[in-house]
Amino acid sequence: MSVSQPVVTSPSAVARVGSRWYFVVTIATVGLFAWVPFVHAAVRLGRKSLYARAVVFGAAAAVMSTLMSLSPKDAAGKTVGTAGNVLTSVAVVLGLAVVAVACVQQAKLRREILRHVPGERLDGPDPALAAALAARERRTEARKLVASDPLIARDLGIGRPDLPRNYDDGGLVDLNNAPAAVIASVCGLDPATAAGIVEIRTAAGGFSAVDDVFTTVPVNAWDRLRDRAVVLPG
C-alpha cells in the first residue's frame, strides 16, 4: 500500500498567492483603494516614482468619492434624478477604468516583487556601472586637456597615478613618463611587456602617439591601451 506524501508548498508559491492581494484590494473596492498596492510596492522596491502613482490613483479615488457623495439620494439612500444617475454613472465608469489600469500596472509590479532580492535597489543604475561610466567621462575630458594644453595636463598629473595629485583623470597612464609597473597595472599588461615599452620609449626619446607601442604589445591589449593610455611630452 502506497503512502501519500504531504505536499510542501515552496516559499515562492506562497509569495505568489499572497501577492494577489493587490488585485483583490483594487477590484473589491472598485478602485477606491487601488493606491494601496502602489505604496506597498514603493516600499518593497525602494522606488520613489511609485509613490507618485499612488497619489494619482488616490486622486482618482477622491474624485469617485466626491461624485458619489454629490449624487442626489432619497431617504433610502438610492440615487434619484437625472443628475444623480449621471454622476453615479461617471463614478462607476471612472472606477472601472481605474481598476483596469491599476491591475495592469500591479501585475508588472507583482512580478518584480517576486523576483526582488531584499536590499537590492531597482530605481537607479547599478553603482558599479555608474562609476565606470563616470570614469570614462573623466578620461575623455582629460584627453581633451592633454591635446589642448599638455603643460597644464602635466601640472595636473594626468596619467601619473604614481605621483601625488588632486586631479582625477579617470584612470589614465602616461606612456611617456609613467614607470613600467604603473603602465602594467593600468593597462593590464604583464611586467615584461610594460618594461619593453619603457625600453623603447627611452631609445626613441618618447612616443608621439599611443599607437606607437602597438608593435610591442599583444593585439588583445590594444583596446585597453586606447582607453587608458595617453602620451605627454617627456
UniProtKB/TrEMBL annotation:
It comes from the Bacteria. Gene3D superfamilies: AF1531-like domain. Pfam families: HHH_3. InterPro entries: RuvA_2-like (IPR010994). Keywords: Membrane, Transmembrane, Transmembrane helix. SUPFAM superfamilies: RuvA domain 2-like. Coiled coil: none annotated. The chain crosses the membrane at residues 20-43, 50-70, 82-104. This is Helix-hairpin-helix domain-containing protein.
